[in-house]
């Protein structure tokens, strides 16, 4: 995307294997983030994203693995000695300090004089567009302003690794849009490695060069946003990108999933994924004529509004979502519990090796 | 790791004065009023019985001012000692874990439970002239604590410190430790974290603890008279003067009590005013 | 516990208390002076703290002799006890450590004529072994010697002041204790080199302190008056207790404790 980080170790960046084991929970993920690259850790709640971030920051001890940043071992250092900047989910700005002193806190701890630290802090606040709020206490700041102060504070320690934990989650939808583009710009200016934790696919796609999807403490998929969106490998990812996803067995142009046979455009053999968009699903009250392929009997599990359309949740041999127009719902007289026929066009399906 | 994003800080949200949910329920109001009466009526009793006509003349007596000054000085110094020793102790209890921590916490409350006179005897057994530490203090440094103003401070600090430790520990437990983590990621050592983040965050709790501690020290009687003795000018604080006045001249005791009350209420109200306007 | 059950409980306690008051009232109304009282009666004795040992012993003997009477003691500083009686405390007998405190009660017309039943004399108390080498009252004037006295407001302090004045000795004590027991504690713990306390206190310490007699003590003897209170709920039993204190057996108990006992 922007500045593809070269992979060679002399150019630095983060190389880590994080293992954290606790009763009932185990995280074991490998991460590589080049200097200048932004990687998003994406995953459902409880997947271990925040634990991974805390382990990188030194706030949660590793039970195994190692962390190397710019060729130096990081995991042997306590949190306060790591060249790492963290933006916490709810920012954790010190309530008793002004915005300026919050940002100056890091440089002061690193040995700068009060005047130097404040000068550096003022510059950073200026850069995030908050020069006018330097003397404000955190509780006088709006959510978006607090987020930018938190970013400035994390950058003030001149980190080589920037960690952001759900940086936009605490914001309302409108502020989010504005802050997201600002954050994207600041991340582009940052020359160290950046790891961003989020459960919002949009944040991940806009802000990150690469996504790493974590489920149950392990990496399930990684790649660019386009790659991940096009070829989801878990139900969770498929739902994130809005696709119906199935695992089946391919035999040439046909893929069988739970007894339902799909015609696909690809020629594959063995275990594969089949994905298609809910908009590609058509619903019928009675069995349509023609090919029995790509057709199955389903029961309506639920109906909800989805943007301008209606999303129909289907149960049956396979569970699926179908997006139809409100007019179609009225014409077909759809209601929950009803048995109907569902079909998808072969050209709208996408199969790839599992 | 937290399964759900924790309660979020609301930036920009101002604290509102009170909830607008109508009248307080009787079940709370009646006991609250009874409680107020219970606490305030004895004070009214003192006011009614006060010999108002001879009041100015009694107050002008040098012993009264002497005892009052000694009380204020010793209670304040004792509070300082408690802060110096008690805040780190509270931090240890709240932020670290070590074997015997629960036992230590229980031991710290001992002065609360111990009758103060017994506390005074216990102090004598340790810091007295023949005490475990006291004999060494005397032979090595020529320092004796009993019957000195320093002894009064020791007795008051002994009795008052638990109040400080308990409130500060409570404040520490209530404070969000993630602020301390945030400070650590900014390069702050544990000491810097404590000084520049933890302490300011728990300042209201420390202040409340210090007020309790000061008030307890000001009213201290049993441990003081047992450990430090009673001699006007050096160890006779207001409560001791009140107690002895009660033996022969109850009216004088009432006057002395009123003086102690008035001064402490004035000081506490004054301090509160300052904190409230500062926050 | 719910608030409701709490209030019910409170109501029970209140009605029980009311019932007690009622029975007590009926009991005293029904009992004529000539009739022997049926059932046990309680006699409440307010006594100076220095009488704790002797009066406890006397009380036990009295109960043995009068099975229908239970003796209840309230020991404390004579001045405090006098205040309590003036404020309406339900006592039958008052035994004070000084005529002055008894006077508070008689002045309020709350007691019959008091009689002196014991005398107490001061001694110099020193820690076991007498580390400061005290042997006379003059030694207490030495600036090196740490002395504890009772505060002038309490009887032992007043007596000490009289004795020192009689001897012409000026002492600068390190502390003026609130009562004689506290003064003695300072000697027992070795915090002071000497103190002026009563013979009875030295004797009661069981060898932990040594007592040294001094001639001027004779000038500061403390009289212990006893009186039946005019409001005495237990009436005749109160007088019988006073008689028991002044009986040969009572005098013997007091003398063993170190009191001087005046002739009958």
UniProtKB/TrEMBL annotation, chain A:
Keywords: ATP-binding, Cell membrane, Ion transport, Iron, Iron transport, Membrane, Molybdenum, Nucleotide-binding, Transport. SMART domains: AAA (SM00382). GO terms for biological process: molybdate ion transport. It is an enzyme of class 7 (translocase). InterPro entries: AAA+_ATPase, ABC_SmlMolc_Importer, ABC_transporter-like_ATP-bd, ABC_transporter-like_CS, ABC_transpr_FbpC, Mo/tungstate-bd_C_term_dom, Mop_domain, P-loop_NTPase. GO terms for molecular function: ABC-type ferric iron transporter activity; ABC-type quaternary ammonium compound transporting activity; ATP binding; ATP hydrolysis activity. The keyword Ion transport applies. Residues 289-353 form the Mop domain. It comes from the Bacteria. GO terms for cellular component: membrane. Its EC number is 7.6.2.9. Pfam families: ABC_tran, TOBE. Residues 9-241 form the ABC transporter domain. This is ABC-type quaternary amine transporter.
Automatic annotation (TrEMBL), chain C:
One of its GO terms (biological process) is molybdate ion transport. Keywords: Metal-binding, Molybdenum, Signal. One of its GO terms (molecular function) is metal ion binding. Residues 1-31 form the signal peptide. InterPro entries: ModA, ModA/WtpA, TAT_signal. Molybdate binds at residues 50, 78, 180, 198. It comes from the Bacteria. SUPFAM superfamilies: Periplasmic binding protein-like II. Belongs to the bacterial solute-binding protein ModA family. NCBIfam families: modA (TIGR01256). This is Molybdate transport system substrate-binding protein.
């Amino acid at each position: 995307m922007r500045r593809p980080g070269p992979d060679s170790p002399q150019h630095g960046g983060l190389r880590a294997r994080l293992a954290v084991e606790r009763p009932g929970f185990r995280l074991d993920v490998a991460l590589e983030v080049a200097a200048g690259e932004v990687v998003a850790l994406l995953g459902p709640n409880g997947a271990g994203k925040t634990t991974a971030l805390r382990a990188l920051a030194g706030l949660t001890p590793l039970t195994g693995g190692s962390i190397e940043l710019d060729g130096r071992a990081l995991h042997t250092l306590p949190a306060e000695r790591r060249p790492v900047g963290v933006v916490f989910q709810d920012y954790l700005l010190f309530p008793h300090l002004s915005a300026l002193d919050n940002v100056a806190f890091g440089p002061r701890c690193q040995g700068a004089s009060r005047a130097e630290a404040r000068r550096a802090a003022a510059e950073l606040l200026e850069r995030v567009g908050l020069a006018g709020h330097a003397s404000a206490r955190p509780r006088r700041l709006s959510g978006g302003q607090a987020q930018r102060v938190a970013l400035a504070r994390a950058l003030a320690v001149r980190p080589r690794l920037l960690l952001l934990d759900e940086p936009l989650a605490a914001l309302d939808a409108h502020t989010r849009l504005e802050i997201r583009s600002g954050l994207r710009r600041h991340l582009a200016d940052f020359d160290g490695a950046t790891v961003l934790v989020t459960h919002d696919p949009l944040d991940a796609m806009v802000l990150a060069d690469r996504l790493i999807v974590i489920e149950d403490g392990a990496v399930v998929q990684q790649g660019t946003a386009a790659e991940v969106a096009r070829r989801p490998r878990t139900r969770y990812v498929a739902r994130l990108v809005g696709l119906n996803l199935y695992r089946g067995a391919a035999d040439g142009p046909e893929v069988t999933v739970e007894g339902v046979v799909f015609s696909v455009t690809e020629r594959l053999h063995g275990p594969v994924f089949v994905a298609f968009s809910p908009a590609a699903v058509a619903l019928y009250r009675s069995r349509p004529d023609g090919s029995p392929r790509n057709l199955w009997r389903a029961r309506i599990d639920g109906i909800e509004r989805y943007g301008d359309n209606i999303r129909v949740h289907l149960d049956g041999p396979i569970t699926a979502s179908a997006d139809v127009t409100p007019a179609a719902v009225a014409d077909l007289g759809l209601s929950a519990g009803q048995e109907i026929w569902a079909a998808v066009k072969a050209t709208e399906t996408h199969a790839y090796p599992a | 790791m937290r399964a759900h994003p924790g309660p979020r800080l609301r930036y920009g949200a101002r604290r509102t004065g009170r909830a607008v949910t109508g009248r307080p329920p009787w079940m709370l109001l009646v006991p609250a009023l009874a409680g107020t009466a219970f606490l305030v009526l004895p004070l009214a009793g003192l006011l009614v019985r006060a010999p108002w006509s001879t009041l100015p003349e009694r107050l002008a007596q040098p012993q009264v001012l002497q005892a009052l000054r000694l009380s204020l000085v010793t209670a304040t110094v004792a509070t300082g000692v408690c802060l110096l020793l008690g805040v780190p102790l509270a931090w240890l209890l709240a932020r670290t874990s070590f074997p015997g921590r629960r036992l230590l916490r229980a031991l710290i409350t001992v002065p609360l439970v111990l009758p103060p006179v017994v506390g005074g005897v216990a102090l004598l057994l340790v810091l007295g002239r023949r005490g475990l530490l006291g004999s060494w203090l005397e032979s090595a440094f020529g320092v004796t604590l009993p019957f000195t103003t320093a002894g009064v401070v020791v007795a008051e600090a002994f009795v008052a410190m638990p109040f400080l430790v308990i409130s500060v520990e409570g404040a520490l437990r209530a404070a969000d430790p993630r602020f301390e983590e945030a400070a650590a990621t900014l390069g702050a050592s544990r000491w810097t974290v404590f000084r520049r983040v933890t302490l300011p965050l728990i300042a209201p709790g420390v202040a409340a603890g210090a007020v309790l501690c000061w008030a307890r020290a000001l009213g201290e009687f049993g441990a003081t008279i047992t450990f430090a003795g009673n001699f006007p000018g050096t160890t006779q604080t207001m409560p001791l003067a009140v107690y002895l006045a009660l033996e022969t001249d109850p009216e004088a005791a009432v006057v002395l009590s009123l003086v102690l009350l008035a001064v402490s209420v004035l000081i506490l109200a004054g301090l509160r005013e300052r904190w409230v306007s500062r926050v | 516990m719910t608030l409701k059950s709490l209030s019910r409980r409170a109501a029970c306690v209140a009605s029980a208390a009311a019932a007690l008051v009622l029975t007590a009232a009926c009991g005293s109304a029904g009992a004529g002076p000539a009739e022997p009282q049926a059932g046990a009666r309680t006699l409440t004795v307010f006594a100076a703290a220095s009488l704790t040992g002797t009066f406890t012993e006397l009380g036990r003997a009295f109960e043995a002799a009068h099975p229908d009477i239970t003796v209840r003691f309230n020991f404390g500083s004579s001045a405090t006890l006098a205040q309590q009686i003036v404020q309406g405390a339900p006592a039958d007998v008052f035994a004070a450590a000084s005529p002055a405190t008894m006077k508070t009660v008689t002045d309020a017309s709350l007691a019959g004529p008091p009689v002196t039943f014991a005398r107490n004399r001061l001694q110099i108390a020193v820690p076991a072994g007498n580390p400061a080498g005290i042997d006379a009252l003059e030694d207490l004037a030495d600036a090196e010697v740490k002395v504890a006295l009772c505060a002038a407001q309490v009887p032992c302090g007043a007596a000490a002041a009289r004795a020192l004045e009689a001897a012409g000795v000026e002492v600068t004590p390190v502390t003026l204790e609130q009562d004689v027991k506290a003064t003695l504690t300072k000697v027992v713990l070795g915090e002071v080199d000497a103190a002026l306390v009563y013979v009875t206190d030295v004797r009661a310490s069981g060898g932990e302190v040594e007592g040294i007699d001094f001639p001027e003590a004779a000038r500061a003897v403390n009289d212990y008056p006893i009186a039946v209170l005019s409001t005495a709920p237990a009436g005749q039993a109160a007088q019988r207790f006073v008689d028991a204190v002044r009986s040969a057996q009572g005098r013997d108990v007091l003398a063993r404790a170190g009191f001087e006992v005046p002739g009958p």
